[in-house]
Amino acid sequence: GWSVRIATSFTSVAADIDPTQIWWVRRRLKQAGIEFVESVAPEHDGNAWSLIDLESDEKQPAGQVDLVVYAGPRRSFDELSEVTR
Question: Is the CB of residue 37 less than 8 Å from the CB of residue 6?
Answer without folding.
Answer: yes
